[in-house]
Amino acid sequence: MIFEHNTLLKVAVIGAGVSGLSVASFLAAAGHKVSVFEKNQKVSEIGAGIQISPNGFCVLKELGLSESVIKNSVHNSSILICDYNKGKKLLQFGQRSVLGNKDFRLMHRADLVKILYRSALSNKVTFNFGYTADAKSLSGEYSFVIAADGVHSKTRAFVNPMQSKNIRSDYFAWRSIVPNTITHHNGVRLTVAPNKHIVSYPLRGLDQLNLVLIQEAENNEIFEWGMTETPEEIKVLFSEFGGDLREALDAIETVHKWGLSSFEVPVNWATGNVFLVGDALHPMLPFLAQGANAALEDAFILTKLITYLDPTEAADKYLEIRKPRLLRLIRQIKNNAWKFHLERSFFRTCAHSGLRLLNKSFPQSASFPFRWLYDYGVTKLNI
Question: Is this model's pTM higher than 0.90 or not?
Answer without folding.
Answer: yes
